[in-house]
Amino acid sequence: MKTSVILNQENLGSVLSNVKAPTYDRDKVTTSIVHIGVGNFHRSHEAYYTNELMEHFGVLDCGICGIGLLDYDRKIYNILKDQDGLYTLMIKELDGTYTAKVIGSIVEFIFAPENPFAVIEKIAHPDIKIVSLTITEGGYNLNEATGKFDFSNPVIIEDMKNPMSPKSVFGYLTQALKLRMERGVGGITIQSCDNIQGNGDVAKKALTNYVKEAAPELLSWIEENVSFPNAMVDRITPVTVAADKEILKEEFLIEDQWPVVCEPFIQWVIEDDFKAGRPAWEKVGAQFVENVVPFENMKLRLLNAGHSLLGMLGALHGYNTIDEAANDPDFEQFLKDFMDVEVTPTLGDLGDINLDKYKKSLIDRFQNIYIKDLISRICLESSAKIPIFLLPTLKQQLRNDGEITRAAFVVAAWCKYNDGVDENGNTYEIKDAMSDTLIRAAALSHKDPIAFLKIEAVFGELVNNKRFVETFTNTLNMLRINSVKLCVQKINSSSTSV
Ligand code: CS2
C-alpha cells in the first residue's frame, strides 16, 4: 500500500498519477511578478493561471515572488518555505469529486516584517514587470464615503515617519518605485486583483495620494512609467478546513499543510495596459478587453452583492454555509428578484454578455452543495464590502426612481447582524475593521433606526435620502418583529415594495 508523501519539490516525482503536478522544470522559472497578499484567492486564481501557462505552454519567465506584509502572513510564508512554494489546488467539481493539482508558479517568498529591504529591492529589480495585489477591499485605505486617502491610519502615519522601513503596501511601493526611478530601471504595472469597481483606478488613486505627501518628486515618474489596469476577478474560494487536508491525504496521498479549495468556475477579464509587458494569460483563459467596466459591474453587483445578501440573511436565520442559504426556496426567490428587479436595471449595455445565462450560473454556483463556503467568510469585513457591492445599486436605483426594497432589506439585515446573535440565540463574532462602530450603531438603532445609517464612512450622504431612510426603517422594523424568513416571504409575495 502506498503511503502519503509530504509535499515539496523533492517528492514531486512520487505524487500519484491522479494528481496533476508540474512537469515543467521549476529551476528554470524566472520571476517577473511580485504578488502582495498570498491568500487563498491569489492561489486559486492568478497563481493558477500562471501555473497553467508554465505547464501547457512552457512559458517560464513569469514566476511569482510572494510577499507577506502582515504578521499574519508568517504562517503561509513558513508553509510555502517548507513546501518549496508548492501547494495543492483542490478543485471541487460539480459532481462532488475533486481534481487535485499541484501549483508550482510561486517560486520565491519574502516575509516583509523580517526583511523589508529585500521587498523593496525585489520590486525595484529590473526583471520585475508586474506587482499584483490582493490586499482586500478595505486595503486601499480610501474612505468609502469621502473617497479620500486616510492619512490618520496609524500604519500610514508610521510609514510617513519612517519611509525606509515601511509597513503598508503604499510605503513599500513608494520606496521601490523611487529606486526604479533613480536607477532608470523602467516602467512597471501595478495590477489589482481585488473586488473593487475600477480596481486599477482605485490602486492608482490610493498610491498617488500617498506619494503626493510622501515623495512628491515621484509623481510624474509614476504618471509616465506605471500602469494600473482594471480587472474583474472571479473564483469562489472558501476557507480551507481540516477535512480538506484529510481528504487530500486519504484520497490523493498528499500531505499539504495548507491546500486551497475552489470551485471549477474561473474568470479573469483584464484591461490590456501593461507598461512592461505581461504573460500571455489569454492562452489559458483570461480575457483581455478594452473596457472592463461592464464585467466588473455585473460581477460585483450580482455575485458579490448576492453573496452578501445570502450571507446576511443566512447568518440571521442560523445557516452556516452559502449553499444552505441559496438552496432555501424563499431566499432563492428573494435573491432572484433582487438580481432581476433591482440590479439588472443598473447594469446598462453589457454588449455580448448573456445576462440571463450569467444570473442562472450564479444561482447554480451559490447552490453548489460541495462548495461549503462559510457564511462567516462572506460576512467578514462587510463595512468594506457593502459600499462596493451593494450601495452602488441602491444609489443608482434611488436616482432612477427604481425599486430598492430588497437592497434596503439587506442593509437592515446587516444592521441586525451586528447584534451578534442569530434567531436561534447563537452568538457569533463581528469580524470587521469597523466592528466597534458597527456594534455601537446597531445597538443604538433599536431605539433610533437611523443611527446605523449615520455611519458616515459607510453610508455617506445616503442618510439624507428620504426614500432610502424610510424603506430601511420599514424593513428594519419588520425584521425586529418577524423572523428573517417571514420577512423574505412577505417581500417575495408583495409586488415590489414593503
Ligand atoms: C465574496 C468573494 O468576499 C466575499 O464577500 O463575495 O470573496 C467572492 O467569493 C469572490 O469574489 C468570487 O470571485
Topology:
Elements (H helix, E strand, L loop, with lengths): L4 E2 L12 E2 L10 E6 L3 H5 L1 H12 L5 E6 L5 H9 L4 E6 L5 E6 L2 E6 L4 H9 L5 E4 L20 H8 L7 H15 L4 E5 L6 H16 L4 H7 E2 L3 E4 L7 H11 L1 E2 L4 E3 L4 E5 L15 E3 L3 H25 L4 H5 L2 H15 L11 H13 L7 H5 L2 H8 L1 H9 L5 H13 L17 H10 L5 H4 L2 H4 L6 H16 L2 H10 L5
Parallel strand pairs: 1-12, 2-6, 3-4, 3-8, 4-7, 5-13, 8-9, 9-10, 14-15
Antiparallel strand pairs: 5-6, 11-14
Bound molecules: D-mannonic acid (CS2).
D-mannonic acid (CS2) binds next to helix 10.
Plain-language structure description:
With 498 residues, the protein is an alpha/beta fold. The protein folds into two domains: 285 residues, NAD(P)-binding Rossmann-like Domain (Rossmann fold), CATH 3.40.50; 200 residues, N-(1-d-carboxylethyl)-l-norvaline Dehydrogenase, domain 2, CATH 1.10.1040.10. The strands form four sheets. Strands 7-4-3-8-9-10 form a six-stranded parallel beta sheet, with helices on both faces. Strand 5 and strand 6 form a beta hairpin. Helix 6 packs across helix 7, helix 10 runs antiparallel to helix 12 and helix 12 packs across helix 22. The structure holds D-mannonic acid. The site of D-mannonic acid (CS2) has 8 residues, from helix 10.
Task: Give the tally of β-strands.
Answer: 15
Shape: globular
Mean pLDDT across the residues is 96
Low-confidence stretches: none
Distinct bound molecules: D-mannonic acid
User: How many domain modules?
Assistant: 2
Specify the helix fraction band.
Answer: 40-55%
CATH topology grouping of the largest domain: Rossmann fold
